[in-house]
Amino acid sequence: MSDKYIVTLHSHDVQQQDTMRDKLLDLGCEFNQAVLVLKRGPSHEGQQLTLICKENFAEKIESTDGIKSIVKTGPSYQM
Q1: pLDDT digits (tens, 9 = 90+) for 49-69
Q2: What domain of life (predicted)?
Q3: Which segments within 1-79 are labelled E, that is strand?
Q4: Which residue among 13, 46, 65, 71 is buried most deeply as judged by most CB within 10 Å?
């Protein structure tokens, strides 16, 4: 089962959103995790991504440079 998270980035830059999306997909491969990363519209908090992954992956990446916060928002999904 996987959970849905909102990842808020430190940067308000759209290019940074693309870079972080690619980085999260690479980290998913590195940790052998099924990861889905979707772009979101800008918010007042900064650029955001929707991340669907296992909880242990979210815990591993929460201290990654460029990530401001990871908040679990949704129900579990079967991937």
Answers
A1: 999 999 999 999 999 999 999
A2: Bacteria
A3: 3-9, 36-39, 48-53, 67-72
A4: 46
